[in-house]
Amino acid sequence: MKKKILSVTAILFVSFLIFLALDFLFAYKIHILRIDFLNSLYVNSASDKTDKYSLKNLPFKYNLFTEDFETVYRKKIKNKEIKIYGAPSDKKPILLFGCSFADGARLQDKDSFGYLLSEYTDRNVYRLSYGGMGAAPALFQASDDSLYNYIAENTQTPEYAVYVYITYQLYRIFEDKYCYSDFYHHQIIYNQKNGKLVYSRYSPIALISRFASGKYILRKYCEKNIENDTDYLNSVMKRYFLQTRYELQKRYPDIKFIIVKYPVYDENTQYQEKIYNSEIWKELEKDGFLIYDLKKEINADLTQNEYILSDRHPSPKAWQIITPKFVHDCIL
């Protein structure tokens, strides 16, 4: 009986190891594809590149060398590939942070927020936004001296930092830190220590959660706990904004930080409304941030079909009605 139990235990243990190995290979390949896809966007934003990284075209050879956001971003700085909208101007420039909404996903340059912002203000606009990203990359950029060296080479001291916010950016703060990563984006990891956010290059939890099992076990556990504590979720987002502004003001003491709150298609749900209408916005206003709520300021429902593309990103029409009013209300 004892030998039988040991045999069964050994078989289960070996089976579990095999499962983990296959699980890891699957998750690792998804991770490689995701990073490769992002790298293609950073280097060449042509949308027709995406089919190359379809799951139907899995290469047999595993690529062990990938580049994370930090590395690719610094390469873009070094190669002077950060997009700057507008011609040289005597007016001080604007730094534009955020995710694909600010980045102009699926839009021609002339229809994007950054381009229109430059046109309406006659200022240079630095497009520092990235699809699928948000608060963590913005803090990393604001903490990185290479950005400020790049700005000094091209234009004068910026006057405004504009951050386009959507509620999904809250989840992205946690996804790579605690949960299985999405295929379409790669966050930067920060840990909270002594009231500050501290950049962390590697995290054992993040590495473990690359396993496909993390998608079904760890992520579900984390999502349940995170969603049950929206106050904590919002307090972390507030910390990102405060620390990002602090980093910017260390270099540019007079820079003004504007957060544009953009409603997304399903924010009529109770949970999304609770996040969108959090008390942190009033707190940030008291701390000197300008919060520009498009639900209140724009006389249009931006979640309706005429203002969104098929993938629910803003359409050209959305930015055409947002930008002039935003400039009139917020940019001197």
Short descriptors:
332 residues; two-stranded antiparallel sheet; alpha/beta; single chain; Rossmann fold
CATH topology of the largest domain: Rossmann fold
- Please state the overall shape, judged from the principal axes of the Cα atoms: globular
What class would the helix/strand composition place it in? alpha/beta
What is the element string, with H for helices and E for strands? HHEEHHEHHEHEEHHHHEHHEHH
Task: Give start-end ranges of low-pLDDT stretches.
Answer: 42-66
- Name of the top-level CATH class of the largest domain: Alpha Beta
Order of neighbouring strands in the sheet with most strands: 1-3-2-4-7-8
Helical percentage: 40-55%
CATH superfamily of the largest domain: SGNH hydrolase
Taking the sheet with the most strands, its summary is: 6 strands, mixed
Give the terminus-to-terminus CA distance.
Answer: 83 Å
Q: Total domains, how many?
A: 2
SS strand fraction: 5-15%
The CATH architecture category of the largest domain equals 3-Layer(aba) Sandwich
Average per-residue pLDDT, rounded, comes to 82
Give Rg in angstroms.
22 Å
Number of strands: 8
Please give a quick description of this structure:
By secondary structure, the chain is of the alpha/beta class. The protein is 51% helix and 10% strand. It folds into two domains: 67 residues; 263 residues, Rossmann fold.
